[in-house]
Write a structure and sequence with these properties.
The structure holds 2 protein chains of 2 kinds.
Chain A (H helix, E strand, L loop, with lengths): L3 E13 L5 E14 L4 E5 L6 H8 L7 E10 L2 E2 L5 H7 L4 E4 L3 H4 L6 H12 L5 H14 L5 H4 L9 H13 L5 E5 L7 H18 L2 E6 L2 H7 L2 E6 L2 E7 H6 L4 H8 L45 E3 L5 E3 L7
Parallel strand pairs in A: 3-8, 3-9, 6-7, 7-8
Antiparallel strand pairs in A: 1-2, 1-4, 4-5, 9-10, 10-12, 11-12
Helix pairs in contact in A: 4-5, 5-7, 7-8
Chain B lengths: L5 E11 L5 E12 L4 E5 L6 H8 L7 E6 L2 E2 L8 H5 L2 E4 L3 H4 L6 H12 L4 H14 L16 H13 L5 E5 L7 H18 L2 E6 L2 H7 L2 E6 L2 E7 H6 L4 H9 L49 E4 L2 E3 L14
Parallel strand pairs in B: 3-8, 3-9, 6-7, 7-8
Antiparallel strand pairs in B: 1-2, 1-4, 4-5, 9-10, 10-12, 11-12
Classes of the chains: A alpha/beta, B alpha/beta.
């Protein structure tokens, strides 16, 4: 059984505009992917593709006017989207850990690192004494490679560098022994030499503890070297899903191909390339959402594309995937 | 070779640290830049690369050293007389949204430098702005939009049009594509490559992204803690990085291709504080091949091969290779 299976997730922003007309922005239009225990999935795409929104939708962290209008997110056999808020609360921070992009703004500036780690444990495990929780907090800081962990428990968030703050956030996400970790751009904004340390740490801990992880990123380099599987998002849909090696060696969706061709390693300067902006979420066309930018688009693309199963769990949402 | 467009000699910039102490942001940097040449300036945050770019344009007054632009020493030109110089030296910033006045249309923004630096009539300016808009591939209908109505890539095109409006001899580009998505980035890099060829402007290209550097730079200068640690042609730096920091930087880069194995030399720690730097090599605290002498003596930037310089004491005894 999959650890997490997201099926046909639709999230809309529904609000009145300045002329008092009800308008719907269809931000997620059928996101589907699955994650096996102990595997690392890269959720990759450009700005506005819906990567972070997918995570927020699954975790029940959407704020109005955004809301999930359809779909399922089955985690350990239970649909997160159908759980009452108290039950979801009990899972978040415990069975499901979250690491967000900006470590500095995600830590409570008015609490020492140790206090924050203790608080988080006792919220989910009231049976822990303060001393027990503090001992485990120090162990966790050591596990994420923070030197002198006992002393660091007394540190304030503002005393930490970006890399150290990100390590603390990883410690917080893992302290209650989750089986699922969601990391949203965990290294964006960190220097490259520090990025390598954090990614090594994340992958090492996930492997060691058998945690399934979703890494949300716009960086194909992170996907190529730190993920087992990848799901490529465009306009609120997963357009391709498969093992990383197959996806890079035989990208099936024209968007994935364009994305890979635009990486600095493959980029041919001054070569023709697809242009144009993502579709208008207020007025999505029927059929394939990529077809206006797609160099291969044909008449058939005005019909909704199927989720083609290619070989070995590699699938693309494209009429022409097999022909390609 | 013709006289260089830019010659920088022994440039230093120090700031007073809050609470006492001195931040050596840029220390004793020298280089030249010829017409039509692109010098890539690479380093992590805090390496001094942006401060150096700003000193070159006299947006910040250097503490020491000389900046010679087209044969003229501009280090001590009074601020009031800098404006005519700046027609000839332009800058493109990382965040186009922050660089553009939100209350001006794209057309007005592009006309602004023409108004300041040329004697064109209103009609001539209008024509020139249309021409510049087309040059950066902004159709004239788009020129009537405000920055908020343009995408990030289009905003950066407006910034580039402004920078080339006065036909400058030197353009400093500070992370011009770092905030842009892959597919948008490709289009901007295309444009910069075309402009480089067409205008013959010298470019100082500041980036932390080695992939972009490889595409754009003729020569490369690697900075760490305010000092140049290595200087060479782009090909030479990528094929034979001599300084241990350059080697670590290269190995921390994640190519977007799982088939390319990573040569991992993960550095420990982060860039130390630039306040009151200790004597010796700034990289010694993180360097895997440092010897005691590295902490005592500042390594000079020495020539290893024609045009290839590195500042590392271990080059002499061949111990500068980081073992993998």
């Amino acid at each position: 059984m999959s650890l997490l299976e997201v099926r046909d997730l639709h999230t809309h922003f529904i609000a009145y505009d300045l002329d008092n007309r009800l308008r719907t922005a269809r931000a997620l239009n059928g996101v589907s992917f699955s994650l096996e225990p102990g595997r690392i999935l890269g959720l990759v795409g450009e700005t506005g593709a819906g990567k972070s929104l997918t995570a927020l939708s699954i975790l029940g962290l959407l704020k109005p006017p955004a809301r999930v209008v359809a779909g399922q997110a089955v985690f350990e056999g239970r649909d997160l989207l159908a759980l009452p808020p108290e039950e979801l609360n009990a899972l978040r921070g415990a069975r499901i850990g979250l690491v967000v992009q900006s470590p500095k703004t995600s830590l409570d500036p008015l609490a020492r690192i140790g206090q924050q780690l203790v608080r988080l444990q006792r919220a989910h495990r009231p049976e822990f004494s303060a001393a027990q929780a503090e001992a485990r907090a120090a162990e966790m800081l050591a596990a994420v490679g923070i030197p002198d962990p006992k002393r660091r428990l007394r540190a304030w968030p503002h005393e930490l560098s970006g890399g150290m703050a990100q390590r603390v956030l990883i410690a917080m996400a893992l302290v209650n022994e989750p089986s699922l970790l969601i990391a949203d751009e965990p290294t964006t904004g960190l220097d490259v030499t520090v990025q390598a340390q954090i990614l090594d740490l994340l992958r090492g801990l996930a492997r060691q503890r058998g945690i399934g992880a979703v890494i949300i990123t716009h960086d194909l380099g992170v996907v190529a070297h730190y993920c087992d599987e990848a799901a490529v998002m465009f306009a609120g849909q997963v357009v391709e899903h498969g093992p990383v090696s197959a996806l890079f060696a035989r990208p099936a969706h024209p968007y994935t191909r364009a994305l890979i061709a635009a990486t600095p390693e493959r980029l041919q300067l001054r070569a023709p390339r697809p242009s144009g902006s993502p579709p208008n979420l207020y007025a999505l066309p029927e059929g394939c959402l990529y077809r206006d930018r797609c160099p291969m688009a044909q008449d058939v693309c005005t019909r909704p594309p199927p989720d083609l199963a290619l070989r070995d769990g590699h699938a693309a949402r494209c009429h022409l995937a097999e022909a390609a | 070779m013709s006289a260089p467009v830019l010659r920088v000699e022994g440039l230093s910039k120090r700031f007073a640290a809050p609470g006492g102490g001195v931040i050596g942001a840029v220390n004793d940097v020298s280089f030249t830049l010829a017409a039509g040449e692109t010098l890539g300036l690479v380093g992590e945050s805090g390496s001094g690369k942006s401060t150096l770019g700003r000193c070159v344009l006299r947006l910040t007054a250097p503490s020491e050293g000389r900046v010679i632009f087209m044969g003229q020493d501009i280090t001590s030109v009074p601020e009031a007389r800098c404006r005519p110089l700046r027609a000839n030296m332009q800058m493109v910033f990382q965040d186009p949204w922050a660089a553009l006045n939100p209350r001006m249309t794209a057309r007005d923004l592009i006309e602004e430098p023409l108004m300041l630096h040329t004697r064109l009539s209103r009609a001539e300016r209008r024509d020139e702005a249309t021409r510049l808009g087309l040059r950066v591939r902004l159709p004239s209908a788009m020129l009537d939009r405000y920055p908020s109505e343009l995408s990030g890539g289009q905003q950066q095109r407006v910034c580039i049009a402004r920078a080339i409006a006065t036909k400058p001899a030197l353009i400093v580009l500070d992370e011009p594509t770092s905030s842009l998505d892959l597919s948008v980035r490709a289009g901007i890099l295309d444009l910069l490559a075309e402009l480089k060829e067409e205008t013959g402007a010298a470019m100082l290209f500041i980036t932390h992204d080695l992939g972009t550097l490889r595409l754009m730079a003729d020569r490369v200068m690697v900075m760490y803690l305010g000092r140049v640690v290595e200087q060479a042609t782009a090909a030479e730096v990528f094929e034979r990085p001599a300084h241990p920091y350059t080697q670590a930087l290269m190995s921390a880069h994640l190519p977007a291709d799982p088939a390319v194995p990573l040569a991992r030399h993960v550095l420990r720690g982060e860039i130390p504080s630039p306040i009151n730097l200790p004597p010796g090599c700034g990289f010694a605290s993180r360097c895997p091949v440092a010897i005691p002498a590295c902490r005592e003596r500042l390594p000079p930037l020495e020539e290893l091969a024609p045009g290839h310089r590195a500042a590392c004491l271990r080059v002499a005894d061949g111990g500068n290779r980081i073992p993998s």
